[in-house]
Amino acid sequence: MVATGFTLPAQALPCPQAALSQVVRHRTEAGETLSTVAAEYGLLPTTLIAMNPNLPAQGALPVGQVIEVPPFNGVVAQVEAGQTWQSLAERHGTRADLLFEINGCPDTLPRRVFIPGSNQIVADPVSISLRYPLPAPAKLILSYGWQPHPQRDELVFNSGIALEAMPETEVMAAADGIVASVGENNGTLMVVVNHRNGLQTRYGNLENVALRVGDAVSEGSRLGTVAGRASESFMYFEVRINSNEGWVARNPGLYLAELSLQ
To answer: Residue 141 is inside which H or E element, if any?
Structure first.
């Protein structure tokens, strides 16, 4: 929950682009089949059939036929009256937070949603322990998961946590890795680091960052400092795992022993 005196966005980091807005249109060429087109995009043939019911499953495809290709395996589902993210997840055997993010974190449930393939997520490397990203354990002011929106009467999904921290507090890498991104986010900087075993960490509300994409960082090395004013200062932290659906958010409490004490 957000502590009194802190003004945090409902989601500290932007959501990915909705899966349905990433659908591309492939125009077939001579000799292409359902299998070759699927292989070109790293998808299962059944995914293309689900998106394009009139496609022939066998033989060459008609030249010039337009095929809608989603960014990853899955199906499109029509949302029925009264359904929620949780009921959709239960019906399709997936996670509500994953559906919410994959569909762009909309304010309201859209009429059509993309349901990712049920068995595409890689095994979660929960045995990995990460270093705490601040010099000392700090107060948790924004929790991971579904939380009440601070202004609206609804629940929103937080894909990470926020830790109370004074401005200019040093922020450190949670493990050895390679810098994947350094960019502006909500007027400050966000650093993304890729680690071994398909793990990624994200550090938000930073300043004084001297890193570039491709730089190697070691566990405990300086990434930057906390931005903000003394009365509204925090560090945002995410842990994600790699999957065929992209980088899927995980509870940082699974990786930071210090959080289990709060």
So the answer is: strand 140-142
Phi-psi region of 236 (alpha: psi -120 to 50; beta: other; left: phi over 0): beta
List the one residue out of 236, 222, 218 whose CA is nearest residue 172: 222
144: which residues sit within 8 A by CB, 6+ positions away?
158, 159, 160, 161, 249, 251, 252, 253
Q: Answer yes or no: are the C-beta atoms of 179 and 201 closer than 8 Å.
A: no
Tell me the whole-structure pTM to 2 decimals.
Answer: 0.61
Confirm if 14 and 241 have CB atoms less than 8 A apart.
no
Q: Which tokens in the block code for residue 117?
A: 């393939």
| Three-state DSSP state, 249 | strand
Q: What is the pLDDT along the chain (262 residues), one digit of tens a residue?
A: 333 333 454 444 567 788 899 999 999 999 888 888 888 888 888 788 888 877 776 778 889 989 999 988 888 888 888 889 988 888 887 888 888 988 988 888 999 999 887 434 344 555 678 999 999 999 999 888 877 766 767 677 788 999 999 999 999 999 998 898 898 877 889 999 988 877 889 999 999 999 988 889 999 999 999 998 877 789 999 998 876 556 778 899 989 988 865 5
User: Hey, what are 99's tokens?
Assistant: 């559906």
The length of the chain in residues reads 262
Burial class of residue 223, CB neighbours in 10 A (0-12, 13-18, 19+): buried
CA neighbor of 49 nearest in space, from 21, 68, 28:
68
